[in-house]
Amino acid sequence: MKNGNLFLLMLHIVVLYGCKETWKAGNIGNPADLKYIHTLDAREGAGISSAPPTVQTGGLLPEYEIVTIKKADGSPLEESLLQYFSIGGSTTVNIPIRSNDSVVDEEGNLITSVKAVSKGENGVISVASGHALPVGDYYVTVKVTTEAEGTVYATVFEDAFHLKIVPLLPTMMVYAPKNQNLVYGDPDSKTVTPIVPNGNPDISFELGNHSDKLVIDRSTGAISLASGYVYNSRESLDVTVQAVSNISGEVVAFDDVVRVVITDTPEEMEVETIYFFYPTLITSGAKPNGGAGYTVQKVKPGDSQRIWGETINNYGKFLQIPERPAANVGQMSLQTDTYSSSGKTSPFDIWMAMDSQDLTPFQYGYKLSLTFYYQVAFFRYLQDGRTPSDLEVYISTDYTGGNIMDVDGNWMNGTWTKINDGIKSQKSLGTNGTQSTGAPWGPVFDGTPYPGDQTTGGDPDGRKRPDLGDFSQKWVKCVYEIPSGYISTNFTLAFRIKSVNFTDPIMFNSGEGRGGMYIFSDIHYKAEESN
Amino acid sequence: MKLINLLLLFFIPISGVFAQHTITGKVTDHQGKPILGASITVRGAQQRTQSDETGAYSIANVKSSDVLVYSYIGFQTVEKLALDQQTINIQLKIDEVQLSEVVVVGYDVVKKGDLTGSVASVNPDELKETATANFDEALAGRVAGVEVTSSDGTPGGALNIVIRGGNSITGDNTPLYVVDGVPLEEFNPGSLNTRDIKSLDILKDASATAIYGSRGANGVVVITTNSGRSDGKTDIKASTSYWTRYIPTRLEVMGAYEYVKYQEKVAYARDNYVPAYNVDQFHNRWIDAELYRNTQGTNWQDEMFQIGLTNNHTLTLSTGNNKTTLYYSGNFLDQQGTLLTTGFRKINNRLKFTHKLVDNFEIKGQVEYSKLKYDGMQVSGDQWTSVIRNAVTFRPVQPVNWIEDEEELLITDDPSLFDPVTTLNNTMRQQHSDILAGTLGFNYEFLSKFNLDVTGNYRTAITESTLFFKKETNEGSRTNRGINGTISDRRNDILSITGTVRYKDKKGDHDYGFLVGSEAQHNGFETSELRNTNLPTDFFGIDNLGIATTATIAQSMYTENTLLSYFGRANYAYDDKYLATINFRADGSSKFRGKNTWGYFPSFSLAWRVSQEQFLKSVEAITDMKFRAGWGVTGNNRIGNFLGYNLFSVDASSGYVLGENQAFSPGAYQSNLAVPDLRWETTAQTNIGLDLQILKRFDFTMDYYIKDTRDLLLNAEMALSTGFSKAQQNIGAVSNRGFEFTLKSQNIRSRDFRWNTNFNISFNRTKTVQLNSGQQEIKTDPSWDSQFMQTEYQYITRVGQPVGMMYGLVFDGLYQLEDFEFVGGDYILKTGQPSYQTAMRPGMVKFKDINNDGRINELDRTIIGNPHPKHTGGLFNHFRYKSFDLQFLLQWAYDFDILNGNKSSFGNIYIAGRNGLKSLNDIWTPENTDTEIGGVRYGGVGLVTPYGYKLDTRHIDDGSYLKLKTLALGYNLPQSILTKLRMKRCRVSVSAQNLYTWTKYEGYDPDVSVGRYGALTPRLDYSAYPQSVTVSGGIDITF
What is the DSSP letter of A23? Predict the structure, then answer.
């Protein structure tokens, strides 16, 4: 029995010691387990940045190095293409120490800063945008090196990062105009070929619907009537066309990209006009920070009682705009006063930026323009005949929001181009009593008009055009055709009302002039199909 | 040095040669069979020998005037004057009392051989030789089927004793204590001096416990204390011992350098590895982690743990004659805690007497008084503050570039974190208990075979607890209560009277007896509490709460219950071969209403002593063999006194203020929904056992039991439309099945060397059989840290599974880079990878998606740990070589799990500024991915697991352990020296308790369970007072 007891005792000791492993701390050794998230859907020419990798170093700072890049067949990448690849490293930054004077180094010197390591890009593999890497698979072998207490640890990780470049698929397809007439009985009747402006051109076209009535030329995308089609009556088909990559077989569908109107006799097709940005401008208060579709920046508010705020004056309430969308219930005019109730006008500089818009959907097959209406009232020239205020109109493609300009006149958050001279303007001739109402519109002239009655007062600057007449309390219609160079995903329009030709406050009562009241309405963008 | 000198003195050989001769002979039993191992000694001298297999012995150097003493366990001792005899043959008679190793069962004493139920006895001498403050601390591992576990290591804290698995789910599973015949439900082991224990018997099966009826379901611990002598002699025993206690383990916490490196990692992660605000903050506080590489730092555990000294002194007087006996014992123990400011002190006094007015009428009585004092703050169980948490998480080093404002910032970030040493030194908690009990009764024998015994007992326990937070505590300086103090008083009065009539007779081969009795008990309980807050100064401590500027509403409460019982027992034995016992008890309790007031608890048991049969008598190796079988029903009534009634409460939280400048008006609300049909929790237990003795040296006991508890007193969930979330009902069932094995062997019993072994092992399987109607599980949040765990369920009691299983998510590693796609600069989980929040990132903890729905949520929690050991047991060995004795006890629990709340809370990031376990330094970073510890932040998203996801399989640890529970070495001074010193006995000893634990558990000690909901939340370790190792030296002298 003694042996039995001992056996039990031993058995328990063995059982008790036979199970789990204990917690371990990070071990320092050669780097291991390098992990990248492989990029398997990179598009031709597009810049690529991998996610930062992870690697087991026991906490040591790793240093990454590209050793080789191989193609799918195992052959090394051509020298000329290597240039597009790079791998990020760590950098050091100085952290200033807000010391209480007691922190000194070993030699007694006050520590004023220490170095910190920026590791955000460490190991990130990048391929430069616009690269010329052909479609295919690429494998990057990476070496990771660490160092601890004088010992260097290194491991080469074969094919650690897999990059697969696939054909650049088209993101846009345009049939211009969108409405295409197919004439039954005319064997040559077919649509235009679509514009497929981006993506790898090695594509073919397929119909996504209506394939019982229509056929598409696989190589050009032109659509015609199917041979078995029997005409009964005029019909209109919204057609989905698919672009198929001949390289990868990937399919991109463009829904309702073209409207085919089938007739038995040729018809003139209607072109489409899209008011894709027609904000109501609705806001509340006299000095809002913005409203529906716009924001306000008051660089110098001057004596203004009302800045891009609700219109309370009758002059802003009689404009009639036929193209205004019916949905824009409560469309508002915005009123900016540049003077105080006592008639004083101090220097001012007031901005209003419309919400940024993506114009790229209309870059092919459309003519893009912006339109706005404004009038200046309660305006008086300076004693020498010059205007005390003026309107400036700007556009930008890189505005990131926030202030446009600081009080010193420095641009902020984007680059802007003044477009006053490119605007085509018309003066309202329509009236309702003493109020300007819009149509009929006078002749088109270039630029925005000089404020006020240009037939009166001196003209030291030579900017008045007496032939245009008086613009006091008259709506002006302004249209600007947006140049193709400004078609971007971030197009922004901004208005600036600023004081000019004086630096000290002026008093209307003393006859020196008055900055006036600026009323804006119906600011909108328009895309018109082009033939 | 004095001790060494004394020892040397003891070892000095005493020589002396007188005229002597050799005596030989033979020792036989009452049947003439030789006795092996009978002891033959010369009274007052050193000569000693033992009989061999033939019963023969030889003892030399015997003087004619010497008295030879022949003894053997189970037989009456015989003394013979040597004279000039050369041969003395002795036939020993059976000693009824000794043979029986009598056990005290309900209201009676029976010979162990006549037992038909499952009863285990603990040798009180073994308990006395351990360095423990209270006897329950020494019980673990000694009895099969009795699981003794610690809540934690709080000095003087009571242990959890569960006999044969828990019956109740939401109720109490502690056994009933019966001390000197008085049943006590609220028994504090500290009120008993271990050296007063004469016998400690544990009634395990229903056939043994049914006599205690409604209170016997959890088993019964029957303790009988020492009495005075009846032989006209007087013993004065004095013992004193000094202990040194220490906490042997530490949670492995980050040191100064590791902590600063960790802070650096956190800062970089928060800044997405591009230095910004957090890195700037880090460097401006710490400058450079390398500055701390050789910094010692502060291990706050070392700062608040201490060597605890204890002194323990007992003096007993035992005297009397055949008319009157008297016994007195006094004990003083002063135990310094191993955690600063903690400790336990107690004084036990017991005076016990009997006096025979006439031969058949004896008066008996005793008075006992104990004063217990517990010092120090509560270490575990506080949901909001924890000194262990503070010790682990308080920063080990201050930044070199420290600005006072930054301390304020840290307080703002983590207001509940406080310097642990300051906390301990400024939190004044004391608990004083005065326990006074008196017993008076008589025993009257009449008609030669009848015995009437009547005993009345009054017992009162008055406890006052005080808690005072000085200014330099979290409570005092960071809460709106400010400096505050609370005084709570409790008083428990028990008045009971028990009367029994016994009848015993024997006619021919028929041995029979009857016992009938009745018992009445009144149990009153009252409490009061007062608390004042925002004291202007802490100078006066708890002694002048009147200077407070904010008072709270004082509270008081009184409740009571009564129990009236009738019981009876019949015993019958035929030819000492066939034995039967029938018990019956009827209990009427004030806790239950109407027809449920009375409960009836029957039991019966049978035994067959096979060894008495002719066909086995020829098998000499089998010296005793008995089969036992029994069945019985017992109950559990441990619920509130008035839960069967609708209760209405008016308290501080139910008042209202009607408007401005209006006074507070108390309001009443219904606080308990009556369940009029509330009745006893009933346990039916079947037990089959075998007692086997081989060669009178090896005693085997095996028991198999089936224990089914139904009508559980369950605090069951209610439809919220009732207005109550829970109500006490008789719902559900639990079963326990188990096997117990005990071996007691006398391995060696030569003249100079004896080696006895006691081995026991128990297997118990608990299963939840039924819960509330339609309910399949009870989920429980043990609420061990309301901030960290919020209200995450961590335990589940599910039908078909054991009670109180650990419940959580299954850890499945960490999310790594390969689990994601990188799309447009964002990390998107690959298809098939489950998520638990909108933005997922590498470095987050991943859990197994149990239901495969792609989402990790509460539906993915499952049973992740089993707190019930596959088996428990103990291995006790006792060696005696000449005057030396050595004993050790190994105790184990195998294959069970512990919910390691410390690891969950301190081993993962919770509040980044806190220190934690060393594993925290292994957090996931882009350069440390091979880890199980989640990161801080990556890719602009926090990685820390959100609330509701804090517990997973990483925090369930195997708690299996083997513990050297007791090691004791003693030396008994030889008789020759004792005679010179006029002593009867003198033993010097050194011993150790909890000396070493073999375990893989990474906490302080695997013997821990601080869950606040009993059986629903077992084996939880969070901020528990660590267990201590005790090393002691002592001396016992009997005059």
Answer: P
Indicate if the pLDDT at residue A23 is higher than 80: no
Cβ separation B284–A15 shorter than 8 A:
no
Which pLDDT value is given to residue B95? 62
pLDDT at A307: 94
Q: Which residues of A touch B255 (CB under 8 A)?
A: none
Query: Which residues of B fall within a CB distance of 8 Å from A102?
Result: 400-401
Is residue B290 less than 8 Å (CB to CB) from chain A?
Answer: no
CA distance A410 to chain B (A): 28
Q: Does A16 contact B922 at a Cβ distance shorter than 8 Å?
A: no
pLDDT of A12 reads 35
Partners of A105 on chain B (C-beta within 8 Å) are: none
Nearest to B1000 among A17, A50, A53 (CB): A17
Q: Do the beta carbons of residue B534 and residue B551 sit within 8 Å?
A: no
Q: Residue ranges of the domains in chain B?
A: 17-96
Query: Tens digit of pLDDT for each residue in B23-78?
Result: 999 998 877 778 887 889 887 777 888 888 889 999 988 888 888 888 886 677 78
Burial state string for B93-105 with b = 16 or more CB within 10 A and e = fewer than 16: eeeeebebbbbbb
List of chain B residues whose C-beta atoms are within 8 Å of the C-beta of residue A17: 998, 1000
Asked if B918 has any chain A CB less than 8 Å from its own CB, the reply is yes
ipTM score here?
Answer: 0.79
Find the residue in B nearest to A101 (Cα): B401
Task: Please give the CATH topology (third level) of the domain spanning B17-96.
Answer: Immunoglobulin-like (2.60.40)
- Summarised one tens digit per residue, pLDDT across range B165-187 is 988 887 788 999 999 999 998 89
CATH value at residue A136: 2.60.40.2710
CA–CA separation, B712 and A219 (whole Å): 82
Which two three-digit tokens encode residue A203? 């594509």
A160 and A308 housed in the same domain: no
Domain span at A292 = 275-529
Q: What is the pLDDT of residues B512-568, one digit of tens each?
A: 999 999 999 999 999 999 999 999 999 999 999 999 998 788 889 999 999 999 999
Show which of residues 618-657 on chain B sit within 8 Å of chain A, judged by CB atoms. Answer: none
Q: Indicate if A370 and A236 belong to the same structural domain.
A: no
CB A186 within 8 A of CB A162: no
Q: Is residue A100 part of a domain?
A: no
Q: Among residues A233, A254, A269, which one ends one of the domains?
A: A269
pLDDT in tens, A57-67: 999 999 999 99
What per-residue confidence (pLDDT) applies to B541?
94
Q: Is residue A245 part of a domain?
A: yes
When pLDDT is averaged across residues A96-108 and rounded to a whole number, the result is 77
If you write DSSP's letter for every residue of B939-983 in order, what string do you get?
TTEE-SPPTT---BGGGEEE--EEEEEEEEEEEEPPHHHHHHHT-
Answer whether B400 touches A (CB < 8 Å): yes
Residues A431, A320, single domain; the answer is yes
On chain B, the residues whose CB falls within 8 A of the CB of A120 are: 272-274
Whether B922 has its CB under 8 Å from any CB of chain A: the answer is: yes
d(CA B266, CA B259): 10
Nearest neighbour of A5 by CB, restricted to B287, B875, B917:
B875
Handedness of CA B406, B411, B414, B417 (dihedral sign): positive
What are residue B860's phi and psi, to 5 degrees? -95, 0
Please tell me whether residues A338 and A381 are part of one structural domain: yes
Task: Return the axis-axis angle of helices B256-270 and B277-286, rounded to nearest 10°.
Answer: 160
Judged against a pLDDT cut of 60, whether residue B950 lies above it is answered with yes
pLDDT of res. B218? 92
Name which residue leads in pLDDT, B4 or B63. B63
B999 and A16 in contact by Cβ < 8 A? yes
d(CA B270, CA B979): 80
Residue A18 lies in a domain: no
